[in-house]
Description:
Layout: E1 5-9, E2 16-20, E3 33-38, E4 41-49, E5 66-69, H1 72-99, E6 104-110, E7 116-122, H2 131-141, E8 144-149, H3 152-159, H4 170-173, H5 183-188, H6 195-198, H7 213-219, E9 229-232, E10 235-243, E11 248-253, E12 258-262, H8 263-278, H9 321-324, H10 377-391
Parallel strand pairs: 7-8
Antiparallel strand pairs: 1-2, 1-4, 3-4, 3-5, 6-7, 9-10, 10-11, 11-12
Helix pairs in contact: 1-2
Amino acid sequence: xxxxxxxxxxxxxxxxxxxxxxxxxxxxxxxxxxxxxxxxxxxxxxxxxxxxxxxxxxxxxxxxxxxxxxxxxxxxxxxxxxxxxxxxxxxxxxxxxxxxxxxxxxxxxxxxxxxxxxxxxxxxxxxxxxxxxxxxxxxxxxxxxxxxxxxxxxxxxxxxxxxxxxxxxxxxxxxxxxxxxxxxxxxxxxxxxxxxxxxxxxxxxxxxxxxxxxxxxxxxxxxxxxxxxxxxxxxxxxxxxxxxxxxxxxxxxxxxxxxxxxxxxxxxxxxxxxxxxxxxxxxxxxxxxxxxxxxxxxxxxxxxxxxxxxxxxxxxxxxxxxxxxxxxxxxxxxxxxxxxxxxxxxxxxxxxxxxxxxxxxxxxxxxxxxxxxxxxxxxxxxxxxxxxxxxxxxxxxxxxxxxxxx
Length: 406
């Protein structure tokens, strides 16, 4: 009969170690605290894999057995070890400052049996002479002291924290081993290469860049890089944008036109061009066949609408083409039955000044010539004076004699 095996984790987000269950009568489940014999002595951990979850244990080799389930005395000894860890960190920081060593104590880890304590530190230098520090700490703590240098990622894993996503750090919750992170992973996802945008709390590249790198690498196959030069039947162009998720490629031609091509169509045209060149077709003839009609066309010129002729037969003033292109403006005609005010100009052509003969209105094509409008010089002169007083000056086009007395 195969021996039951359990998976034990001694640190949060630490590596899982496998141990055999010596006493088959002991029931062990996930979450139970146990004491196991390791290479560093007795250690207390937590079961994360029960015997029912480990189906095949043949490849695990010869395993050590679980010593016992953790008792109340074992839990009390764990609390004493935590107190020693706090004292060790405080003493190490004080002695480092006194000795002026180029290092910084981060955390300490005490053994389960209280025989030793390990102090983890950061340092910019590769090697630090810490023999004097170890001697002083051993005398103060009355235990064996070990110093271990770690990096920024290990510091974040030991201390923990909250990242920009609002959740706990992945390295301190579930990542057991660090994987190499490269800047190429950020380029595959088209992320801004700004250190503050792609770096975590540890100052290194985000670990989550590696989570989707395989998927983005597969989706980038067949797509050109931004800035790549292309040649087609419409001339030379350059790739200005590539959307990996939608697989759309935006190309800007030297003529100023822009087109958007699907990634599958682009890959098909590239394969067709490569096969043509392999068959001996000159490169100048094996161009990419991008249709020219895909380029955005210029907007059509505005339609100039002519206004209908006036009802009184007078000639309309010529408007600029820019105003005529905006559409026809229908002028309102005054109802014939409405009474005109005293300072309101009557409908029809503007009366000419005194002494100036009014010009006859030019008849429109297809319309009967309009009769000349009667002129009333005194009324026109008085209306013009009232209008000039309201405007604060003389009206445009008025002769100098019109400013005289009645």
